[in-house]
Amino acid sequence: MKRTSQAVRRKTLNKETTHLFDGGRSLPSFQHKGLGNVLLDYAEDTAKKEGYDYMWLGVYEKNINAQHFYKRHGFEGLSDHTFQVGSDPQTDWLLLKNLR
Questions:
Q1: Kind and range of the H or E element at 42?
Q2: If 8 and its partner were Cys, which of 4, 37, 43, 86 is the partner (CB 3.0–4.6 Å)?
Q3: Is 100 exposed, middle or buried (0-12, 13-18, 19+ CB in 10 A)?
């Protein structure tokens, strides 16, 4: 996934202008029915109304379907973040979308 420049990262990732979207998980029986589109559109509309310039989120590096979903919605690669789940290091891709 394409990454944004370091200068853009420094400028955009602050709590006054950037909104975290955290809640894009769904059970398999609810996937591919348009619910994700509705939830993400609502989150974006709310963030815009509240004056945010950007929205960001994390997606598991092995969740290719989610990565494609967010790319279709205009998110771009920002960086990555590795964290421990028990003894297993896992990496999330941090994605960013300009709302303006």
A1: helix 35-49
A2: 4
A3: exposed
Residue 4: which residues within 8 A CB-CB, separation 6 or more?
12, 76, 77, 78, 96
Burial class of residue 1 in the structure, from the number of CB atoms within 10 Å of its CB (0-12 exposed, 13-18 middle, 19+ buried):
middle
pLDDT digits (tens, 9 = 90+) for 45-66: 999 998 988 998 889 999 998 9
Catalytic residue IDs = 70
User: Are the beta carbons of 66 and 75 closer than 8 angstroms?
Assistant: no
Q: Which two tokens stand for residue 40?
A: 């993400």
Beta-bridged to residue 95, according to DSSP, are 57, 77
- In angstroms, rounded to a whole number, what is the distance separating the alpha carbons of residues 88 and 58? 18
